[in-house]
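User: Assemble these into one structure.

Assistant: Restating your components, then the assembled model:
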Amino acid sequence: MSEVILPTSEVIFTLDGVTVTAQSGQTVMEAAEAVGIYIPRLCHKEGLEPYGSCRVCTVTVNGRPASACTTPVADGIAVESESDQIRAWRRTVIEMLFVEGNHFCMFCEKSGNCELQALGYRMGIVAPRLPYLWPKRPVDASHPDVLIDHNRCILCARCVRTSRDVDGKQAFAFVGRGSRRHLAVNPGSRLCDTKLDVTDAAVDACPVGAILRKRRGFETPIGRRLYDHVPIGTGVEQPVELTIREGSPS
Amino acid sequence: MSATNTSTRVVIEPVTRVEGHGKVTILLDEANRVTQARLHIVEFRGFERFICGRPYWEMPVAVQRLCGICPVSHHLCAAKAIDKIVGVDQLTPTGEKMRRLMHYGQIFQSHSLHFFHLASPDLLFGFDADPAIRNVVGIIQQHRDLAVQAVLMRKYGQEVIKATAGKKVHGTGAIPGGINKNLSTAERDALLADAPQMLAWARSAVEIAKNYTLENLEKVKDFGSFESTSLSIIRDDGAMDLYNGGLRAVDKDGGTIFDHVPNDRYLDYIAEQVKDWSYMKFPFIRSIGPDDGWYRVGPLARLNTCDFIDTPEAEEARREFKSLTNGRPNHMTMAFHWARMIETLHSIEKIIDLLHDRDLQGTDLVARGQRRREGVGIIEAPRGTLFHHYRVDEHDLVTMCNLIVSTTSNNEPMNRSVRRVAEQYISGRPQVTEPMLNAVEVAIRAYDPCLSCATHALGQMPLEIELIGPDGGLIDRGSKG
């Protein structure tokens, strides 16, 4: 059976009260980006199928919360993204991610390039509001070139999906449910037992400092890291206003 | 102060104008004679344990969090140890010179902070001046030029650090085998523009410290003083070298105990003793033993160990310093200040020399070598010799860490100074007064101790003194901060 390509058609909806013209089949996040509006996200990564797990991209569609990365646009829907309520939800999600793991930005080599940290800065999180859980999690350094620090994993599944869908290896998987859910490697219990190679796209998929190339930490000087001078989302937002912020990430 | 039938216990808690949290206890007998005086360090942090299991390349950035005053020293010392882990014995010229520039910036800012902000109120107003003015605010009000100079000198040192490490505090410049950036010409020119003023101020700071010492020689020569061994690293030719060199220890007369000891053999020469009343260990020279093997480190010790200083103005200042003791080691605790300012002058001379060196604009930043399982780094931090020692497993994770921090080496000397001043100022007096207690603090401050570093501990910064009677009863407590 030959592939059927459905014709695209224009869809008109409102985003924070502004009328937006999008293409059918686009998600709310894609349609917003197309008109230069950034919706924060963590589990979403361009080139991967939408996943909708982190809920950082929560918007309301006709008043009901939905993840912007998985919700398709439709004619006449009213999407809200930047209300006080929605910003508070997103901020709380980020705060929960920080306290649920062990995120010590001050000596994490991902600092300055970390999407979780950058979202914290963008959202103005300057101090912890929720109690830390201080989980005890291992570091898997068994692989000769790649390291997993489970203390920093936020369960976004970007490595799982990239290894499976881009690298074709299924080096990573989740095990456990609920609060016991955690990243694991397949088939063995250690990273060195997988077919993961340091050149795999999955190694670069991690938004935080959980999966790292070994022996490369801190090679980029402060001042030249991704988010040293501009907040996350700057590349999407139009017009791009570059402002040098006071101070740099830790 | 509280009294018992037989005894008195004076407590100074917290000791002020030092980096870290500590307290002093002084025991007095029935005649108010000092029977015991101790500096207790009451912080505990445990860095040596909790960095185990972390990847080795994190060490220079993680361990520098020991301190907010001298993180650069820990950053560089850890980096030197990790250089050995990655098999690098010699950095590239750009790598080494960038690290040295960072280090001299650190010495310059830390020494300036201590001399002007922490120590100068005692020197300019007197040990027994009204505490209401004997502080940094008093300096600002009555010696405005010095106060401004102090702030700008510290700022300059921190700008050097920022240009080399990326941030003024807790940067990331040193990486295993080298450095992650060179110095841009714009950064160089900005630092050169202010360098002449810094040099002039450093010269005048030496004069202030020298004149204070000479004009008050009768008072300060015995103040908390005693003869001791001195230890530091030293360059191959005997020059003062704050970044690299073998270990040298000289006895109270300047005789060599050991010399040019390779860094990785430090444990053959130095051991640490634990005592039950302090979280700070007591290092000692093995060949002499724990009772008499203690030694001083820091500016005074470095002036005692080095044969010369390789920058002209600091060398001239060193010669004048040495002439006071006819070339023999100087054991005056208060001479730490003079020695510290000579090093400040040396640091700015070094900074200027380095800024004119084109190697700082080089692009060969990192050297590579054959991986090893163990590495030792030793550096001269502002407060003295600093040791970092790591072992790493086959998966790149740290399995052992040992740190001997400058202030730890000065633990026994500080305790001796405390006891000596207590005997000089408190023993046999009918009443313990605030100026007497401050005299004890003045002796501690001369060492510029960093108590947070010394215990590798987290915590607040102030210090306290206790006065205890023979039966152990607390008689008085002075608490500051």
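The longest strand of chain B covers residues 384-392.
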